[in-house]
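User: Just a sanity check before I run the rest of the batch. Below are the structure tokens for the first item. I only need the designed sequence back.
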């Protein structure tokens, strides 16, 4: 049964149909009466996942890090209470990342950098220092160096210069009958045997720290690989995370084993979301910047 609710949204519902026979055309009271046939056995329950059917790689990673936080944000639809985002951690992780991605998406020539950077700063960092101040100049110079380092990296350059390359490739991937995945892939291009892709990250650290960070983004890679193969009709041959601050790429060829494991990880994550009462995170560091814990809607875990 298809129907439309009061807000105009369309829905589907399963309806049990019971066949009845007219017992008498009309009783003394003038009312019709009916005798139903044998009522059918109970229908197989339909499993409806909690929350919305639309998911992103960010959402899946949020669930992997903290099911409780995921439930508040994506299932209950409760906006996360504000945290103090004025410190360097937030500035680096949020504003800087958005600015770098914004400029990398739109830049064509080096001469465009200064103007695009100022536009991106206005869009993503309303509290930026003015350009004629010393902090403002240092901030802009650091961002410009980071963007130039990404664009000058030989592996990034090879992919960005490849015929048919796409920046910020948006996708909607029908992952199952119950839901679909959507997102944007920073850079992808045909490589002769299939498709190669990368995702830019602005965090830094030593080689071991970058490897751990890349491992933490594994589910994002899994989502992107499945989506790209659906879009291109060809295998993803290589995927890497490009860490802008270090000029290091962590990743490599996508084997059949990696591909199969990636698809299984996405299916498992989608099936797990909404299947049980949300538990607490197993990663205490997640609680440090959690707005739900700040207002004591969640007890969190001890670090």
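Assistant: Here's the designed sequence for the first item:
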């Amino acid at each position: 049964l298809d129907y439309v609710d009061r807000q105009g949204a369309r829905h589907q519902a399963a309806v049990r149909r019971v066949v009845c026979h007219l017992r008498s055309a009309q009783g003394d009271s003038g009312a019709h009466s009916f005798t139903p046939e044998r009522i059918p056995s109970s229908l197989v329950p339909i499993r409806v996942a909690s929350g919305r059917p639309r998911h992103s790689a960010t959402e899946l990673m949020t669930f992997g890090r903290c099911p409780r936080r995921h439930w508040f944000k994506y299932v209950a639809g409760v906006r996360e209470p504000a945290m103090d985002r004025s410190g360097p951690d937030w500035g680096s992780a949020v504003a800087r990342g958005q600015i770098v991605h914004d400029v990398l998406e739109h830049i064509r020539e080096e001469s465009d950098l200064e103007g695009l950077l100022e536009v991106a700063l206005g869009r993503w960092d309303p509290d930026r220092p003015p350009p004629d101040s010393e902090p403002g100049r240092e901030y802009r110079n650091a961002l410009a160096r980071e963007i130039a380092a990404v664009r000058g990296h030989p592996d990034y350059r090879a992919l960005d210069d490849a015929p048919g390359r796409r920046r910020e490739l948006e996708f909607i991937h029908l992952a199952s009958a119950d839901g679909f995945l959507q997102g944007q892939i920073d850079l992808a291009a045909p490589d002769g045997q299939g498709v190669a892709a990368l995702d830019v990250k602005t965090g830094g650290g030593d080689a071991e720290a970058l490897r751990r960070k890349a491992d933490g983004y594994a589910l994002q890679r899994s989502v992107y690989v499945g989506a790209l193969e659906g879009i291109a009709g060809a295998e993803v041959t290589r995927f890497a995370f490009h860490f802008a601050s270090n000029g290091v790429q962590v990743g490599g060829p996508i084997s059949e084993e990696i591909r199969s494991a990636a698809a299984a990880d996405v299916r498992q994550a989608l099936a797990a979301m909404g299947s049980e009462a949300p538990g607490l995170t197993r990663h205490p560091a997640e609680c440090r910047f959690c707005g739900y814990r700040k207002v004591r809607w969640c007890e969190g875990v001890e670090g």
